[in-house]
Amino acid sequence: MDPVELRHILHMNPELAFQEFDTSNLIEKNLRSFDLEIERIAKTGIIVIFRNSGMASPFTLFRSELDALPVREMTGWEYESKNGKMHACGHDVHMAILYGLILKVIEKGLKSNLLFLFQPAEETNQGAKICLEEIKKMGFRIKNAVALHVTDEYAFGEVATRRGVLFSSSIEVDCSFKGQAIHIAFKEKGKDAMKGMMRFLERVEKSDWKDGLVGFGALRCGSVRNVVADECVAYGTLRAGSFEKNLENLRILEKIGMDVAGEFGMEFDLRTGAMTPELIVDDTMYELLKDVVENMNLKFVEANIKFTSEDFAFFTREYPSLMFWLGVFKGGERVGLHSPKFLPSDDVIDLGIDLMFNIALKMVEGK
Predict the structure, then answer these.
(1) Among 60, 64, 203, 347, which residue's beta carbon has the most beta carbons within 10 A?
(2) What does the DSSP assignment read for 150-202?
(3) Comparing C-alpha atoms, which of 163, 89, 97 is closest to residue 323?
(4) pLDDT, tens digit, for every residue of 128-156?
(5) From CA 175, how far away is CA 266, in angstroms rounded?
(6) Percent of the chain topping pLDDT 90
(7) What domain count does the chain have?
(8) Beta pairing partners, 326
């Protein structure tokens, strides 16, 4: 099966985080025909192992994500998703590129120790951390890690990254106020958790988060229209250029909540969910990418830091790493990642394979 055909099948049959059984089975089945060493990782992921330089030599790791999003596709493509989920973040393309890279490494007989990771659950910011822990237990010594991400922010074939922080750190937060329910006709005798939440959100919006941000995307308050809400919960996220800055903002957020709760005579609780560090691009790897892009006659773009998060960040904290954007925009409307209309063309797959292979060549052979 060629990479484009694989992409079509994956796109039609997307699976959510830690449910990517059919996805990884399909990839593994096709790679097994090459008599490769393949291991399961993080339950639904796979890792493909090339031992071509002896066990004493460290490995270079290339990574793709497996998971899709709970988004109903609206592209009208002939290979449109069949199950109400969607690869709206381009992970089907990433998998096809990594699969194609493996085929090209076999074809060209590249002599180096390489790991190819098909990682589950990137969208939940949990998969990379689990994979990293298991890879360490397997005893692999890794010298570098590489990943890419397609986007329609940049024109087709443009390559973008930056030294240092490329993606922000993120912390998921659930903030809740608990009051006292009472019929709306006697609301002055109750404690309206919704009113406390409104005051809290107003102060959050007016606060100075320096170089970071705090935002809430969902609320759950009360149960019926004519009873004061006894509880109100806001679900949000903190983003900053460093994990340490995020922790500082987390303490400020909790103080705001406690102050508001004290004013209204309520209880306030802050709980954290997934925490992801900032993603750091190594200086040497940055320069290596620029050289590769120039040699391929592609356009290199100096990227800005993004307040989106990426769990490949866990790898970048452990090893000198490279992550970059690969542009897919060919005209028309820029819909952005996670859109039900996001649909990179198949053309980017071969380009991505060549780009990653040239990175591998330069890294492992110094060419």
Answers:
(1) 64
(2) EEEEEETT-EEE-SEEEE-EEEEEEEEEE-B--BGGGGGGSB-HHHHHHHHHH
(3) 163
(4) 999 999 999 999 999 999 999 999 999 99
(5) 13
(6) 95
(7) 2
(8) 150, 159
**Residue range 244-282, pLDDT digits in tens:** 999 999 999 999 999 999 999 999 999 999 999 999 999
The one-character DSSP state at 304 is P
Structure-token pair, residue 42: 């993080």
Residue type, 347: D
- Same-domain pairing of 202 and 315: no
DSSP 207-267: S--TT-EEEEEEEEE-SSTTB--SEEEEEEEEEESSHHHHHHHHHHHHHHHHHHHHHHT-E
The pLDDT of residue 365 = 65
Task: Answer whether residue 54 shows pLDDT above 70.
Answer: no
Q: Is the pLDDT of residue 210 over 60?
A: yes
Confidence category of residue 57, pLDDT binned at 50, 70, 90: confident
Is residue 270 domain-shared with residue 300, that is, in the same domain?
no
Beta bridge partners of 215: 237
d(CA 188, CA 192): 9
Q: Which domain holds residue 289?
A: 3-167+279-365
Model-level pTM greater than 0.85? yes
Buried b (16+ CB within 10 A) or exposed e, 40-67: ebbebbbbbebeeeeeeeebbbbbbbbb
Cβ–Cβ under 8 Å, residues 18 and 121:
yes
Using CB atoms within 10 Å of the CB of residue 286, give its burial: 0 to 12 exposed, 13 to 18 middle, 19+ buried.
middle
Are residue 316 and residue 256 in the same domain, yes or no? no
Give the model's pLDDT for residue 211. Answer: 85
